[in-house]
Amino acid sequence: MGLITWSDDSYQIHYAGETIVLLPKEYALFQYLYTWKNRAFSRSDLLDRVWPLEEPTDRTVDDHIYRLRKKLQKWSHLLTIDTVRGVGYRLTLKEQPSPSPSVLTSDFSENIQRMLTTYHGMGMGAALQTLYANQQVLGFQMDSFYATYLRFVGGDFGWFVEDKPPLSDKLFYLFHLYRMTEIDSQKTLEILQWALKNAKSMPKNYQDEMQITAICVYAQAKEWERAKKQLLPAREVVERVNSPGFQLFFQAEEALLYLLMGEVEEAEKVIQRSEEILQELPMQRELGSFTITRGLCLYHRQELAKARRLVDEGLEVLRSTKFVPHLIYGAKMILSFLKDFGYDREWERKYQKIWTELSEEYKFDYLQKKIRAIISSTI
């Protein structure tokens, strides 16, 4: 999440080897302001977000802001919490100078790029975020791809729906933001069709990914024939790219298609092939996703206890990777499946609660509204 790293279990925040310990509500308030940095919020907004089930007063917000300012004083060169007259408060993140020491050679940059590529491929989101957060300290600047991608990975979704990046640079991300936050599969199908019409403006690797992603969108909309037909161009992409990551991505979509069609044995065959790849290359994002899918297969087989254990385990693996989009999509996949098939009302309620919490934290309604407005302006 940018310059700061977070320890949710101990309410600690970290930067460049320094740690600040906060109280639980201070931590929640600071995390919210930091997530939506450079935006002003009223006291009422902050009360609703940080104290939703309590009845504090405006004074509660003021007291917590006062304590946060004192504790964050030594990081005043990084950020400030400002009072916005007539509104409330805003966390302002200060621009940091980017040193370019002459001693840093092209070999250094190439080594950094290799690290980024490795961490990306292995699903090591925390490592990626650490590099991203400490570019200034380490003396390098990420290329535009990773600078944008890591905003997405870290959950800085608001940036994508604002006016900053041009549409051609963010169209791929807008589609995925809508896809992962929308439960209604028909609405997602409409967004897919819009994205495919504009796909030529995307970089080639994103166009390739769209061919694979379309399988699952059609499947979740119960467009079975279109989904099966889409397997062919998607498989051609995988063969051309020849990447284990793309292979696993394709097989995850293929397995989910068979699962949603009720062809459990076929889904399990795909999962088995994927697990053989993961034994050689333990990519944590993919491991979490396939663990969830195996759990959903067990629901079809009426093995309730094992199914519950695996879907919970898979989601926790995704949570540990620090890839926020994968966590959200994993929760959506579980909830949508349980709603459609009705195997486990207790776990459906559990995942509805998880989904609601994610929706509030990352403002799904706001993101969807902004994305639909962007689409309307391009038609």
UniProtKB/TrEMBL annotation:
<feature type="DNA-binding region" description="OmpR/PhoB-type">
    <location>
        <begin position="1"/>
        <end position="93"/>
    </location>
</feature>
<keyword id="KW-0804">Transcription</keyword>
<dbReference type="InterPro" id="IPR011990">
    <property type="entry name" value="TPR-like_helical_dom_sf"/>
</dbReference>
<dbReference type="InterPro" id="IPR001867">
    <property type="entry name" value="OmpR/PhoB-type_DNA-bd"/>
</dbReference>
<feature type="domain" description="OmpR/PhoB-type">
    <location>
        <begin position="1"/>
        <end position="93"/>
    </location>
</feature>
<protein>
    <recommendedName>
        <fullName>OmpR/PhoB-type domain-containing protein</fullName>
    </recommendedName>
</protein>
<keyword id="KW-0805">Transcription regulation</keyword>
<keyword id="KW-0238">DNA-binding</keyword>
<dbReference type="GO" id="GO:0003677">
    <property type="term" value="F:DNA binding"/>
</dbReference>
<dbReference type="InterPro" id="IPR036388">
    <property type="entry name" value="WH-like_DNA-bd_sf"/>
</dbReference>
<dbReference type="Pfam" id="PF00486">
    <property type="entry name" value="Trans_reg_C"/>
</dbReference>
<dbReference type="GO" id="GO:0006355">
    <property type="term" value="P:regulation of DNA-templated transcription"/>
</dbReference>
<dbReference type="GO" id="GO:0000160">
    <property type="term" value="P:phosphorelay signal transduction system"/>
</dbReference>
<dbReference type="InterPro" id="IPR016032">
    <property type="entry name" value="Sig_transdc_resp-reg_C-effctor"/>
</dbReference>
